[in-house]
């Protein structure tokens, strides 16, 4: 019988983490060799155990799953990380894959989907469900925002006025209005309230 796939599970919610570990350990070709509750602990445990596949939550206190993927890849460029999360925001999916994760699993995935994804990633493949692929396609169809547009969008989400934004960024209110016009066009919205809602819903800006 071949050696089991060695797995590291990273999640800050103990109930979910322990439940996932119990489920995985019931599968003959899986073996959870380590667990962690945050990214720093994950980096340490990864270095100690060198697992074949790492399952990592996206949203955790301190460093998030995207930071985690980057740090693990610094240790081992060929490491295989699966992000497991409740969030399906298209910008998050894009950032995760850009960081080097091999799969993006939602926490409502079935046991069969989780097992198949782990085996596929262990074999060197990148795995996206149809739902995740659709969200990524939606993101890729949206025009990219410039760094300055991102700065302004962050301040809009915080509820800042044009005058406050101008003072913060060292530009005139007229210039701010020009950026807003371009932002609304790219996000396909009519006003700043819709822009803020869209930014948060799509994971472009995190609260």
Task: Walk me through this protein's architecture.
By secondary structure, this protein is an alpha/beta fold. The protein has two domains: 5-139, 3-Layer(aba) Sandwich (Rossmann fold); 147-201, Winged helix-like DNA-binding domain superfamily/Winged helix DNA-binding domain (Arc Repressor Mutant, subunit A, Orthogonal Bundle), CATH 1.10.10.10. The protein is built from ten helices and five strands; from the N terminus they run E-H-E-H-E-H-E-H-E-H-H-H-H-H-H. The chain has helices spanning 14-25, 39-49, 65-75, 90-99, 111-122, 130-140, 147-157, 162-169, 173-187, 192-201, and strands at residues 5-10, 30-36, 53-57, 81-85, 103-106. A five-stranded parallel sheet has the order 2-1-3-4-5, sandwiched between helices. Strand 1 (5-10), helix 1 and strand 2 (30-36) form a beta-alpha-beta unit. Helix 2 (39-49) runs parallel beside helix 3, helix 4 (90-99) packs across helix 6 (130-140) and helix 8 (162-169) crosses helix 9 (173-187). It is elongated, with a radius of gyration of 20 Å. The model has no long low-confidence stretch (mean pLDDT 93).
List keywords for this structure.
single chain, 2 domains, elongated, Rossmann fold, 13% strand, 207 residues, five-stranded parallel sheet, Arc Repressor Mutant, subunit A, alpha/beta, 10 helices
Runs with pLDDT <50, length 5+?
none
- Structurally, the number of domains stands at 2
The helix/strand series, from N terminus to C terminus, equals EHEHEHEHEHHHHHH
Global Rg: 20 Å
Beginning-to-end CA distance, first to last residue: 48 Å
> What share of the residues does DSSP label as strand, in percent?
5-15%
Please work out how many helical segments DSSP would assign. Answer: 10
Structural class: alpha/beta
- Which fold name corresponds to the CATH topology of the largest domain? Rossmann fold
Instruction: Using the coordinates above, name the CATH class of the largest domain.
Output: Alpha Beta
- Quickly give the CATH architecture of the largest domain: 3-Layer(aba) Sandwich
**What is the multimeric organization of the chains shown?**
single chain
How would you sum up the major sheet?
Answer: 5 strands, parallel
């Amino acid at each position: 019988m071949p050696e089991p796939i060695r797995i590291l599970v990273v999640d800050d919610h103990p109930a979910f983490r322990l439940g996932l570990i119990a489920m995985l350990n019931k599968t003959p070709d899986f073996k959870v060799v380590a667990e962690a509750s945050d990214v720093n602990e994950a980096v340490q445990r990864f270095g100690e155990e060198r697992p074949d596949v790492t399952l990592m939550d996206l949203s955790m206190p301190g460093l998030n799953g995207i930071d985690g993927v980057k740090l693990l890849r610094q240790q081992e460029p060929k490491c295989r990380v699966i992000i497991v999360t409740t969030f399906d925001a298209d910008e998050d999916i894009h950032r995760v894959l850009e960081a080097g994760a091999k799969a993006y699993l939602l926490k409502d995935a079935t046991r069969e989907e989780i097992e198949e994804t782990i085996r596929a990633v262990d074999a060197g493949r990148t795995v996206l469900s149809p739902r995740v692929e659709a969200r990524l396609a939606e993101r890729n169809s949206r025009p990219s925002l410039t760094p300055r547009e991102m700065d302004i969008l962050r301040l809009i989400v915080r509820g800042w006025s044009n005058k406050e934004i101008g003072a913060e960024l060292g530009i005139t209110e007229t210039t701010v209005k020009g950026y807003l016009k371009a932002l609304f066009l790219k996000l396909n919205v009519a006003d700043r309230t819709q822009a803020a809602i869209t930014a948060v819903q799509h994971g472009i800006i995190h609260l």
